[in-house]
Amino acid sequence: MSASLRFLIQLATDRWRAVDLADVYLVEARGDDCEVRLRAKDPLVDLRRLADLEKLLAPLGFVRIHRSYLVNPARVMELRRREGSRGWEVVMEPPVNRVLPVAEGKVEMVREGISPTVG
Predict the structure, then answer these.
(1) 60 phi and psi, to 5 degrees?
(2) Cα(22)–Cα(104) distance, integer angstroms
(3) By CB neighbour count within 10 A (0-12 exposed, 13-18 middle, 19+ buried), where does 86 fall?
(4) 117 φ/ψ angles, rounded to the nearest 5 degrees
(5) What's the chain's average pLDDT?
(6) Which of 20, 52, 57, 55 is nearest to 39 (CA)?
(7) DSSP-assigned letter for residue 112
(8) DSSP string, 27-88
(9) φ, ψ at 2 (rounded to 5°)
(10) Where are the domains of the chain?
(11) How confident is the model at residue 19 (pLDDT cuts 50, 70, 90)?
(12) Which is deepest, 51, 71, 100, 112, by most CB within 10 Å?
């Protein structure tokens, strides 16, 4: 039996919750803490800053697409141009269904995260 990768969300200074990494869709900065969107209906709040979570999650394939967002590329359903704009956005898979902006210069990183080059 293969074990899935787990991630600890810091709910309080003395309380942590383990979640399957595959269930993490995105992390959104909210001032000094972050909202972690999972497959479950309700998001969880992690007390750490986005930069701290990026250090933990980037080596596992997560991509910082914007100053406020870190996404799991395995949960990105679509990368597209924003309507009426030169900018780009990603659409997250259901049940999250969020549309998030992609910062200028991050499009190639998102493409590579969604479909890594083989060869």
Answers:
(1) -100, 10
(2) 27
(3) exposed
(4) -70, 130
(5) 91
(6) 20
(7) H
(8) EEEETTEEEEEESSSS-EEESS-HHHHHHHHGGGT-EEEETTEEE-GGGEEEEEEPTTSS-E
(9) -90, 135
(10) 6-114
(11) very high
(12) 71
Give the count of beta carbons closer than 10 Å to the beta carbon of residue 104. Answer: 10
As assigned by CATH, the class of the 6-114 domain is mainly beta
pTM of the model: 0.90
Q: Assign 117 a pLDDT band (cuts: 50, 70, 90).
A: low
Distance of CA 74 to the CA centre of its chain: 9
Greater model confidence, 114 or 73: 73
**3-class SS at 117?**
coil
Tokens of 103: 């910062």
**Which residue matches tokens 């659409």?**
91
Q: How many other C-beta atoms lie within 10 A of the C-beta of residue 60?
A: 11
Other CB atoms within 10 Å distance of the CB of residue 66: 19
For residues 13 and 53, give the distance between their C-alpha atoms in angstroms, rounded to a whole number: 16
31-41 pLDDT tens trace: 999 999 999 87
